[in-house]
């Protein structure tokens, strides 16, 4: 049986190229015609898939926030369902976020640079999804370090996200270690950040 992933749809191709171009040149530096050319269709042809660039940006930023939350919930539920220790669930959450940070760098750039361009309703939805994602992590972190105060755990989660989401600033892809080595390094740094907060708290052994 084939294990190949299905080919991306035309809509997915458009979003991928839009993300790349928006990240490289800024939202206002890219025209619909250029996005169309990147996927081999005329600019006006894009309007069969999206009403405009604003809709593409909204789908990119709302979409990745939703996927992170869904993936995090799935990893947490899988850990609970198999009786895995909280530390293993935290490892899994870190692995999932590292995959995003390494494979979707244009979306990190877009979020940092273009979030305020979204309509209020879309921006509020992004923020809501992000808050739920943070709280999911906080719950797991406090199971691993039960004496860590909730506010401290939340601050740690935000700090670790900042660390992992720094990948667009790590240099050109060719200047970095291989993907596996970079993922291992980021994982070690994330665990070190949580462990450092735990040690500073004087909480003793990991729960």
From TrEMBL:
Pfam families: TetR_C_24, TetR_N. Keywords: DNA-binding. The keyword DNA-binding applies. Residues 31-50 bind DNA. PROSITE patterns: HTH_TETR_2 (PS50977). This is TetR/AcrR family transcriptional regulator. Residues 8-68 form the HTH tetR-type domain. SUPFAM superfamilies: Homeodomain-like (SSF46689).
